[in-house]
User: Fold this.
Amino acid sequence: MEKLVVKLNEGLVYIAKGITMLMVLLITFDVLGRWIFNQPITGSVELVGFGLSMVIFLSIGYTHLYEEHISIEFLVDKLPEKVRYLIDGVINVVITVLMILIAGSLMWYVSRLYDSGTITGDLGIPIYIMALITVAGSLVFALTSLHLAIKYFGKVGQA
Assistant:
């Protein structure tokens, strides 16, 4: 399971990096076009907004896998190692359940967007496509949390 989780997260984070690079280029050319030619790029705000949401959801699992997120542990650090692993395992189970619920809710939202044919104002991009990408990121995050929960509960038995 670990190899699958690592491969999924690394693949998604490479996509997120590519999207970030495209956003940088888009914003740069938009500013230059507005400044030099007095002509901004149509839809740049929409694309950057979509890009930002994709970057967040596609990279959150990777951040969690390598524990690069911000955490406040001044109370937990004082507990015995076995209790810390137990707390980390429980927290990751809670995260897994919440992310599955969020993914389900997002999938319902994707269905509503698809059925209604909702598109963006400037470029006419179907919004459900971007929402579907957030579902994928949420599910990978849930899988990552489940993997970490199993890992921490395994350490409880070893400590």
About this structure: Helices lie at 2-36, 44-65, 81-116, 127-158. The two ends are 22 Å apart (CA to CA). The mean pLDDT is 94. Residues 2-158 form one domain.
